[in-house]
Design brief:
Layout lengths: L11 E5 L4 H12 L3 E6 L2 H8 L5 E5 L7 H13 L4 E4 L14 H29 L2 E5 L12 H21 L5 E7 L6 H5 L3 H13 L9 H12 L10 E4 L7
Parallel strand pairs: 1-2, 1-4, 2-3, 4-5, 5-6, 6-7
Helix pairs in contact: 1-8, 3-4, 4-5
Length: about 250
């Protein structure tokens, strides 16, 4: 642990969607900087991989959309560590579909996971975050600031999360809680696989993403995790309400 990361030492962090991709990288980044991390996800095996070699990461199997689970997750952090300093709302579901093909079966899981669950989990965490002067970091998407034909519902849920970020930043400032968000662009995660895309379709999507990313490459989960840990750090104590693109310049291109 170097001097830059010493400020995370002893802090307690909840990361949802902690089993893969950005969530895994974020859980490990906080742990490497000295924080105790509760990595939340629906599947045991990916969470165990996240925690492997990191004794400060505790896997917690939970469905953040299930009734009572947000409160239970927060209570688990309190029982284990006695406090909560950072909540990272990272979990998300992508299910594409053009207007005219959307069904409740496609819509409801996305809205429940990407939007309702972060609201309820944040509500459950507020008393502990107020006590610690804590931070909420939401994970959005840079595409939410542009059109995304065929995937508008996912983008809409993430755009809503950005509005919540700005609104909560103002609402919670008197309670000593900061709120920020990161908006990743094309990142090397298994999101295509989770979406059910074929390898061929995934390659097409990557080609399109590269063509619209000025830096000309796909980002790494660790680069997003770096942004999350920095926004959550005490050194960022005068930053709130910001949505930080981590997208290789895609939004401004």
């Amino acid at each position: 642990m170097n001097s830059r990361s010493a400020s995370q030492s002893g802090r307690v962090v909840i990361v949802t969607g902690g089993g893969t991709g950005i969530g895994r990288a974020t859980a490990r980044a906080f742990a490497e900087e000295g924080a105790h991390v509760l990595a939340v996800g629906r599947r045991v095996a990916p969470l165990d991989k996240t925690a492997a070699g990191h004794d400060r990461i505790t896997p917690l199997v939970a469905d953040i959309t299930a009734e009572g689970e947000p409160e239970w997750i927060v209570e688990t952090a309190l029982r284990a560590h006695g406090r909560l300093d950072v909540l990272v709302n990272n979990a998300g579901i992508v299910s594409g579909g053009a207007l005219g093909t959307l069904t409740p079966e496609v819509l409801q899981p996305q809205i429940a996971t990407n939007l309702i669950a972060p609201i309820l989990l944040t509500q459950a965490a507020l008393p502990l975050l107020e006590t610690s002067g804590g931070v909420i970091v939401n994970v959005s998407t840079s595409v939410g600031q542009r059109a995304w034909p065929g995937n508008s519902v996912y983008a809409a849920t993430k755009t809503a999360l950005e509005l919540l970020t700005r609104s909560w930043a103002v609402e919670l400032a008197p309670r000593g809680i900061r709120v920020a968000a990161v908006a990743p662009g094309a990142i090397d995660t298994p999101i295509g696989e989770h979406q059910g895309l074929t390898p061929e379709r995934t390659a097409e999507v990557r080609k399109w993403q590269l063509a619209h990313t000025p830096l000309g490459r796909i980002g790494r989960p660790e680069e997003v995790a770096w942004a999350i840990t920095r926004l959550a750090s005490p050194e960022a104590s005068f930053i709130t309400g910001v949505v930080l693109p981590v997208d290789g310049g895609a939004v401004v291109a």
